[in-house]
From TrEMBL:
Domain Oxidoreductase molybdopterin-binding: 258-408
Keyword set, alphabetical order: Membrane, Transmembrane, Transmembrane helix
Keyword Repeat: no
Name of the molecule in the record: Sulfite oxidase
Nucleotidyltransferase in keyword set: no
Alphabetical list of Pfam families matching this protein: Oxidored_molyb (PF00174)
Segments crossing the lipid bilayer: 34-54, 91-110, 117-135, 141-162, 183-206
Organism the protein comes from: Williamsia serinedens
Amino acid sequence: MTVPTATPPDGVCTDHPEGVTHVSRIETVIRRALAGLIAVGAALAAGEIVSVAVSSFSSPYFAVGALLVDNAPAPVREFAIRTFGTSDKQVLLTGMAIGIAVLAIVAGLVERRTKPFGSVLVVLFGIVGIVAAFQRPTATATYVFPSLAAIVVGVLVLRVLTGYLGARRNAAAPEQDGLSRRAFVGLAATAAVAAGGVALVGRAIANAGNAISERASLKLPTPRVRAKAIPAGSNIDVPGATPFVTSNQSFYRIDTALQVPELKTSEWQLRIHGMVDREMTLTWDDLMGMQPVEKVITLTCVSNQVGGDLAGNATWIGYPIKDILAKVGVQADSDMLFSTSVDGWTSGTPVSALTDGRDAILAVGMNGQPLPLEHGYPVRQVVPGLYGFVSACKWVVDWELTRFDRKKAYWTERGWGQMGPIKTASRIDVPASFAQVPAGEVVIAGTAWAQHRGIEKVEVRIDDGPWEVAQLAEEYSIDTWRQWSYRWQATPGQHMLYCRATDKTGQLQTEERTPPIPGGATGWHNRVITIT
Ligand SMILES: Nc1nc2c(c(=O)[nH]1)N[C@H]1C(S)=C(S)[C@@H](COP(=O)(O)O)O[C@H]1N2
Ligand SMILES: [Mo]
């Protein structure tokens, strides 16, 4: 940075009849840093508003984020999910914002009249945005515009705020800002307010008449046959126990989407192609002309740790996948349904699991409402017995019938398994970890699942005692989880509680502790509590 050797007091210098300003070193640094921040903020705002016109997926900020998500090495991703859980996206976006702010300050500090390093940095950011936007599955040539707008606005604002554009050049100190303090503050405030306003207006336009407002008034089709009623006995009457049906608000959410796709029913299509006798494209109206079914199915994520809560049970409304596959005619040597989401994520589901008679559905409703946007609005897949990463494609828009030896889906490409059968699991929900409970009768309660095989038995062990059979809640179906409880005469002291389940094929839950990757965690859940 060029700083005048003798720093006169701030303000207008009386030596210069033109009113050229001298600025102290510290004020110069602050001005430059602010100029960089405001310029880059304005650039991002410009990118966002143009992306409203192009496509939300063309936003340079989110495109760069998506690029990071899709290319994060497996250990980094594992760490992020373990450490931040489902707030990993917020953490990434915040981290990006901090990184960008630092680079923006640098850009401001290094900008010069004839050596515009800061502007070059802004252009480089923009180019990264363009490259990232073109990686989006929906990219078209127009995806260049948001980043181009960001570049133009960023460079212009930076040049103006550093006084290199539109302000009088200071002949005595050509690298010094030619702006008076008042002019700088006025321009900086104007640019900051304008950028903020543009960003807000962009949000508002994007939200008007979009999928969110459509969903609020969407009428779900009425299934002719409702799901079997949930018997009262499927819920256990223990305070703190996991409810049999998970509300949409508390249903776990796992996906790679930094921006929840906003797809309207009128924009939704499912193209079915590949190893089929008749290619077909389904629209929302086509679906509405078909017979919906209603099913209660428990979903589970392969990333769930022993004792973890990445599982949920809902009543789904949708269309049997096997009926749709029958319409297109799956060729005999096709063994995989390769599904693609509108955000580019893919899953590969064994055709056998979709046609063997189980309730695999193309779902449009969840617990009596249209799918929440984060759970796949308007259409997703739900397949009993398989982990979500091989089966539960949200925002699904493309089905290719293919073979496992020809294609690999998103997570399989990143080191996870291929077929994804759900492993038998059981967990203790009550009492809480490290709870202090008075001696006497203590109810231990939990959840167990082995979707599409069913839960036969759950056993509980206290410390090194014998395994005792727990009481099972009434079974709804083999595709749903099952609650259990055990009454224990607790004696004072610290105790370790264990549980394990046996599925209906007679297979006992695996004792050996293994991590979630590649095919789901194994091991018996345990919990330490203190009886007082
Ligand atoms: N488009 C898309 N669909 C997806 C995913 C994803 O990342 N993108 N994740 C899958 C995984 S790993 C799981 S466990 C389930 C979770 O569904 P939920 O978020 O509705 O609970 O969605 C599946 N469908
Ligand atoms: Mo998952």
